[in-house]
Design goal:
CATH topology of one domain: Peroxisomal Thiolase, Chain A, domain 1
CATH superfamily of one domain: Thiolase/Chalcone synthase
Helix content: 25-40%
Number of strands: 8
Strand order of the largest sheet: 1-8-7-6
Order of helices and strands: HEEEEEHEHHHEE
CATH architecture of one domain: 3-Layer(aba) Sandwich
């Protein structure tokens, strides 16, 4: 019988619970209007229009309503995490680290305070890398928790939110894993 791949052994040892949610009512709060399947790229996609004083954008540029997204995150992220912890009877004290999508500092600190999570348990990579979209959670894990992840089992609460609008949390218990150093190019 062939040896099982390392990922199989990792998945057997890891435990994951999820709380995933979505609400399309404010889908246009973060979007790129053209260039996807629904609105294919065409000549008019490249035309820049003024959306405000000094703000030029084409339909291929991301459009973001920052205030709506901020309010959405404050309204939905902490309750999503609380629901996850409560539903699976997870003691908040057993969480070794809360790793959030690195949107912006005010939003993250507001969510952290709503959760009453200790500052030491909420690593940020935002200062070094900015908002790297869906890569921000794994980037934060490697940049801020690499040594711990490599040397000890950990209970990680991961939480992402954004486009769609969608949001979700995952509580994952992992054994020590090989976590290579971050390589910047």
């Amino acid at each position: 019988m062939p040896a099982l791949p390392p990922l199989y052994n990792f998945l057997r040892a890891a435990r994951c619970t999820f709380n995933l949610q979505t609400d399309g009512a404010e889908h246009d709060s973060i979007m790129v209007e053209d260039g996807g399947f629904r609105n294919k790229t065409r000549d008019s996609s490249f035309v820049q229009r003024e959306f405000g004083k000094g703000i030029l954008r084409s339909n291929l540029d991301m459009k973001l309503d920052g205030l709506k997204i901020f309010n959405f995150a404050l309204r939905e992220v902490a309750p999503n995490i609380h629901q996850l912890l409560n539903h699976y009877s997870i003691d908040k004290e057993s969480v070794d680290a809360y790793v959030f999508h690195q949107a912006n500092l005010l939003m993250l600190e507001s969510v952290r305070k709503k959760l009453k999570a200790e500052q030491a348990k909420v690593p940020y990579s935002l200062f070094d890398f900015g908002n790297t979209s869906s890569a921000s959670i794994p980037l934060t894990l490697v940049a801020r928790l690499r040594e711990k992840i490599s040397s000890q089992p950990m209970n990680l609460l991961l939480s992402g939110f954004g486009v769609g609008l969608s949001w979700g949390s995952c509580m994952v218990t992992i054994p020590p894993i090989c976590c290579p150093e971050l390589v910047e190019i």
